[in-house]
Amino acid sequence: MGAANGNDRLHGLDAVRGYALMLGIVYHATMSFLPGPQIWVVRDTHQSLFLSGLFFVSHMFRMTTFFLIAGFFGHIVVEKRGVKAFVKDRAKRIALPLVVGWPILFAAIVGATIYGAYVSSGHMPTAAEHAAAVAHGPRPSPLAFPLTHLWFLYLLLWLYAATLGLRALVLRLDTHGRFRAKADAILATIVESRFAPAALALPGALAMAFTGFGLEWFGIQTPDSSLLPNIPALVAYFTAFGFGWLLHRQSGLMNIWARRWPFHLVLAIALTADCLRMVGAIPHVAPSPIGPQRLLYSAVYSLATWNWTLAVIGLALKHLSNESPVRRYIADSSYWLYLIHLPIVMVLQAMVAKLNLPAEVKILIVLGVALPLMFASYQLMVRRTFIGAILNGRRAVPKTKKGSVKSAPRLAQPEPAE
Hints:
It contains 13 helices and two strands. It is mainly α and 418 residues long. Strand 1 and strand 2 form a beta hairpin. Mean pLDDT is 87; it is low at 1-8 and 396-418.
């Protein structure tokens, strides 16, 4: 299958990458419409159990899928271009957007937060109100820092550093390749087994059950408020990243997922329904104590996560492996859209908050305004500019009739960027 050929552009994985990022935008757009306690700066007058379910399910698998693909394509770049070129490329495409983009986006998010508070209360928030909110909020994490939705870039840098360090150690000690051959055999056995999701879910399930905050409804807590990632996120996402990295050594194994995606999808739906049976469809923020119930939920949740991930990737490899200009454009633009979306979505959520319309209609208004604006900004400001060259690499365009070659931005081997 062409989709699993490491030498060609993997259109199926490209589609997963683009749609996962778009799902991240939808995920944040649902947050003002969630029933239960207020967990978002904007609180809409209308809530929706359907959007609560969409939030719950999308959070289950989108980041695990993202980090698996990130590891897979990270290994491609190291093998093709070497470690030094890889480090230089990631410094430009991951570290630079984080360092340069964070202060700009953080300022925009603060502004959107103030506007959302103004819409909710009818007046600008005072210093006393801010102090009260801080006092009644959760205790700051160690090395607290508001990474916002750019936390995935920060965590990627951790994962790159750890993986390159482990790679160097293995190459130094495993001079004859016996350890690597054994690792490849074990990975092939796992992927070929129908119990693959259980093996892949085990590290994350144990980390969820015995460490972290125990906020069961929210699954893996996003490490967005500290420079020290929480243990469940670090374990779960490093498992996905490392698995993707090793998988590239035997990329043909992904054809198994292309055949089995209906099996994994049915299991994912059933396991997700069981999770919702245990915790309910309405968000709650009360932590659960370590014990048998938390262990059971963590196991079911992690199994659902990996069945969703394998189902989504397998479905894409089976049915989206052909080249599509539309999917290619979405994949190329998705990194930029995700970087800039949060303050835009927050402002639009505040603008529709008091409209007397169903929540499902309001979210369509939010996305119907936000997405065209963001796609337009990509087309006009990014696609063929230095920003696009930073985010997506460089590309050469086809020769002209006279045989000359024009220079233009090029998307390098697909790189996920949640």
